[in-house]
Write a structure and sequence with these properties.
Number of strands: 17
Radius of gyration: 20 Å
Shape: globular
CATH architecture of the largest domain: Alpha-Beta Complex
CATH class of the largest domain: Alpha Beta
CATH superfamily of the largest domain: Medium-chain alcohol dehydrogenases, catalytic domain
Helix content: 10-25%
Number of domains: 2
Distance between the termini: 28 Å
Structural class: alpha/beta
Length: 351
């Protein structure tokens, strides 16, 4: 197969810094969309993959799954996109498209193996897929998303992961106007959860251990802030939430939050991809309460989220960085020193 060479940044091992490299992309096939990458968000998952925290990384790793760009070429059979379109690519670039999950627009749960944007088997070139820390990418048209032209393209990049990760559970559990919704954690995911829940008409309560985050939470759209370390405040909110979105990225004690849920209400985990502290079954049984999980969203749902963002002018709050500063940005993400998502300006890599 013909290939094209692109500039990129990647890591050669789990202890190596990200550094300049050249990678090969496939030439544009009949079903493909070739994209010139403008911006790519930095997700904590990028750091986990680079450092092999999940014990599945293949090197070199070129991260990045919050991609915004312009279409520069389309294959002969492409009908959904044309040259010049503003588009996005999220966490997936392919799936079997033939299993029950794929037929139900749940490609993220493909029963034959979702092909992720990076670090997944590359059926076209062999080896493994490379992500958006690069000048361009070629993607099958069914996994490319239309980005509304009226929203800020830089702030749109994190919608492709942080956005859909928080939108999908709010949509699936049918959060609606008037619901009391708690968002636990005010980071890259949490700040999007606040914005979405507010736009859906919910009464939004930011739940945090840090009183210092109260002002920011309200600026983002929270109606109240609940300090989870305040026992009296937690007691006052007991049994009152219709839905809680838990974005905390590490294992923690979820038991105090179960007391906040109404009968038959659900807390959904989207942040901690690791063991949680022991859950007391009584907190679930007394009130028929639920803890559930959610993983990004399918392509159809992601497009619905982007369309909603266009209608409500929703984007992520971002800090722009040059590609050459990515290693420092990684360190700052680990320290939670960003409000609320880094986005790489890919023009810095093209020069």
């Amino acid at each position: 197969m013909n290939t094209e060479t692109h500039k990129a940044y990647g890591a050669s091992s789990n202890t190596a810094a990200l550094e300049p490299m050249h990678i090969e992309r496939r030439a544009t096939g009949a079903e493909d969309v070739k994209i010139d990458i403008l911006y790519c968000g930095i997700c904590h998952s990028d750091i986990h993959q680079v450092r092999n925290d999940w014990k599945n990384s293949k090197y070199p790793v070129v991260p990045g799954h919050e991609i915004i760009g312009r279409v520069v070429a389309t294959g002969a059979n492409v009908t959904k996109f044309k040259e010049g379109d503003l588009v996005g690519v999220g966490c997936m670039v392919d799936s079997c498209q033939d299993c029950p999950s794929c037929h139900n627009h749940l490609e993220q749960f493909c029963e034959n193996g979702t092909i992720y944007t990076y670090n997944s088997p590359d059926k076209h070139l062999g080896g493994y897929t490379y992500g958006g820390y690069s000048t361009g990418v070629t993607v099958q048209q069914d996994f490319v998303l239309k980005v509304p032209e009226n929203i800020d393209a830089k702030g749109a990049a994190p919608l492709l992961c942080a956005g859909i990760t928080t939108w999908s559970p709010l949509s699936h559990w049918k959060v609606k106007k008037g619901d009391k919704v708690g968002i636990i954690g005010l980071g890259g995911l949490g700040h999007m959860g606040v914005k979405f829940a507010n736009a859906l008409g919910a009464h939004v309560v930011m739940i945090t251990t840090s009183p210092a985050k109260a002002e920011d939470a309200k600026t983002l759209g929270a109606h109240e802030v609940l300090i989870s370390k305040d026992a009296e405040a937690m007691k006052a909110h007991a049994n009152s939430f219709d839905f809680i979105l838990n974005t905390v990225p590490v294992g923690h004690d979820v038991n105090p939050y179960l007391s906040l849920l109404k009968i038959d209400a659900t807390m959904v985990m989207v942040g901690a991809v690791e063991p949680l502290e022991a859950v007391n079954g009584a907190g679930l049984i007394r009130g028929r309460k639920r803890i559930a999980g959610s993983l990004i969203g399918g392509i159809k749902e992601t497009q619905e989220m982007l369309d909603f963002c266009g209608e409500h002018n929703i984007t992520a709050d971002v800090e722009m960085v040059n590609m050459q500063d990515v290693n420092n940005a990684f360190e700052r993400v680990i320290k939670a020193d960003v409000k609320y998502r880094f986005v790489i300006d890919m023009e810095s890599l093209k020069n």
